[in-house]
Amino acid sequence: MSRPAPAIVILGNGSLDTARRIQQLLPGASVLGLTGRVEGADRSYSDFGDTLRQLYQQDTPIIALCAAGIVIRTLAPLLLEKGAEPPVLAVAEDASAVVPLLGGLGGVNDLARVIAAGLGIAPAITTSGELRFGTCLLNPPAGYALGDLELGKRFVSDLLAGESVRIEGDAPWLARAQLPENAQARLAIHVGNAERAPAADELLIYPRNVLVQVCAEVSPQTILEALQQAGLARQSLACIVAPDTLMASAPLRDTAVELAVPLRFVDGDETLLPVAWREPSKGVALGVAPAPVQPQLIGRPRGRLAVIGLGPGAAELMVPAVKAELARANDVLGYETYVRMAGPFRDDQVMHCTDNREEMQRARHAFELAAQGRSVVVVSSGDPGVFAMAAAVLEALHESVDPQWHSVDLEILPGVSASLATAAQAGAPLGHDFCVMSLSDNLKPWSIIEKRLDLACEADLALAFYNPISRSRPWQLGVALDIVRRHRTAQTPVVLGRDIGRPGQTLRTLTLGELTPEQVDMRTMVLVGSSTTCTFARADGMQWVYTPRWYGEKP
Fold first, then answer.
1. Where do the Cobalamin synthesis G N-terminal domain residues begin and end (predicted)?
2. Where are the beta strands (DSSP E) in 38-141?
3. Is residue 372 within 8 Å of 300, Cβ to Cβ?
4. Which of 241, 282, 330, 442 would staple 213 via disulfide (CB 3.0–4.6 Å)?
5. Phi and psi torsions of 348, nearest 5°
């Protein structure tokens, strides 16, 4: 999977102009601004350290407009393995300096050159090998793989000490390098797909030009044995190709993950790239292309459909897995208000916005896109499984007999539901057993709502009301409250949370006796306490609300 687009992280409005200049140089990059200090950023964050560490762990290139020392101290606990780092740079707020910090093997110096050129300055590159030879020998271009990093470091060290080098094989990117070449040199850069024992005097670089085609589920060991018998290096394996009838195969997917190569699917009539095929062994056919293979040109990947929950609206309440899914998506579907909340999006990402009542149509459209091999996200607010799109997506799949739909990689990713977000703001009104209900009778009879509500009240459960009232349903909340009042006292605590997690949020605590339908609208979450729910004064003049975990006599 390709690396996410860069994140430009700023701490104040004084950095915004420089951040926007950098953003214009890097398609898809987004500007992240500190909440309360930056206005006009693409996204907001509340904690600088947590945000940087999360981006780093998601393999996102980081461009931090602040002192280099802050970035180093923030990421220091994560610096375990050189070679597995995304590019990390520090840029001066006034655009006077670009300092690559981490990711020498991930292209950080190339990224620094692009940014510095756009800002009209020289990058502060300090990597000895790049300064001397004009290239990073340990970071070959896309389509090639380095053999052994540790031996490679020793190799470059010997070159820097004055040794010359000879090049064996086709390495066109080195034509522009300033290498001390000598046909008789002890050191050699060897480029080829043949299996070769590592040696201190060789820098082994493997073109990824070997395809494996299978017609059944195979283990990683079977593929490795076939490569070994053919004398081909594991590092040259570019991808696994399988018939589309195996698209839903979990063992085959696990094999590709273990070998760290893409898995592509073709139908029976599809022609592969021009390759020289070798006799199949153990159900595995090996093909060698004349140049590095671009897997994206072969067949199609398994489509992916993720149904995500944005949480109540605040970016910091969106779970990391959801953010990562949005970053990898080709297509984003949902009610327009929620899709806009999920942005910003890259230019290559397609938004499909529909009316909030077109859930089944949206779900079917999502499967149609995913069946083409695309990565698709269906957006819900809150949690997708709570009165939201997860059920509609599963219903559409349940009704379908299309095998391509059932082969899609479907995942439901949770979010912070509105009831939980409101409860957290108030304290813990749902701290004991509770019932979550929608008061909308669009998809279920009102008689069912009345029966369930009456039984939930009889069971003395705390209550959370979704969809409490609307212009087309003006009377249901009043009837619901009449049912509740048959079982609860007028002093029962009630919490009203409107637009919690979004700009202009309001939170109000009152009693059941004080509550009227006019105090509530469609964007309000209504929490009604049980017989044990308590309130007490907060230092800011508001009230804490909680339902203790014990029931009956206090232990």
1. 51-129
2. 43-45, 62-65, 88-91, 98-102
3. yes
4. 241
5. -85, 0
Phi and psi at 221, nearest 5°, equal: -60, -40
Average pLDDT, the chain: 91
The two structure tokens encoding residue 4: 């996410």
For residue 393, give both structure tokens: 């997506």
Q: How confident is the model at residue 554 (pLDDT cuts 50, 70, 90)?
A: low
What does DSSP say about strands 331-335 and 350-354: parallel, antiparallel, or unpaired? parallel
d(CA 46, CA 37): 10
Residue 304: in which H helix or E strand, if any? strand 304-309
Beta pairing class for 462-466 and 524-528 = antiparallel
State the pLDDT at residue 184.
94
Is the pLDDT at 1 greater than 70, yes or no? no
Give the pLDDT confidence of 365-416 residue by residue, as tens digits: 999 999 999 999 999 999 999 999 999 999 999 999 999 999 999 999 999 9
Structure tokens at 58: 């998601």
- Cβ 271 vs Cβ 378: under 8 Å: no
Helix 250-259 with 220-230: angle, nearest 10 deg? 50
The DSSP code for 319 is: -
Residue bearing tokens 């090996």: 286
- 454: Cα separation from own chain's centroid: 42
Bridge-based pairing of strands 284-288 and 210-214 is antiparallel
pLDDT of residue 128: 78
Please compute the mean of the pLDDT values over residues 115-124 and round it to a whole number. 94
pLDDT at 36: 86
| CA separation for the pair 10, 13 (Å, rounded) | 8
Number of H helices, E strands in the chain: 16, 28
d(CA 70, CA 261) in angstroms, rounded, equals 36
Q: Domains in the chain and their CATH numbers?
A: 7-126 (3.40.50.11220), 144-207 (no CATH), 211-297 (3.30.420), 304-416 (3.40.1010.10), 419-546 (3.30.950.10)
Residue of 303, 295, 281, 307 whose CA lies nearest to 223: 281
Closest CA to 171 of 149, 143, 194: 143
Greater model confidence, 358 or 97: 97
Residue 413's DSSP bridge partners are: 308
Tell me the C-alpha to C-alpha distance, in Å, between residue 40 and each of 6, 36, 174, 250, 345: 18, 11, 43, 44, 15
Instruction: Inform me whether the pLDDT recorded for 511 exceeds 60.
Output: yes
Q: How many CB atoms lie within 10 A of CB 189?
A: 23
Contact 530, 462 (CB under 8 A): yes
- Report pLDDT for 188: 95
Query: What pLDDT, in 10s, does the model give residues 318-355?
Result: 888 998 899 889 999 999 989 988 887 877 899 999 88
Question: Which amino acid makes up residue 142?
Answer: A
Residues 6+ apart with CB under 8 A from 117: none
Using alpha carbons only, how large is the chain's radius of gyration in Å?
29
Tokens 């709570």 belong to 386
| Cα end-to-end span (Å), the chain | 54
Three-state secondary structure call for residue 132: helix
The DSSP string of 450-469 is HHHHHHHHHTT-EEEEES--
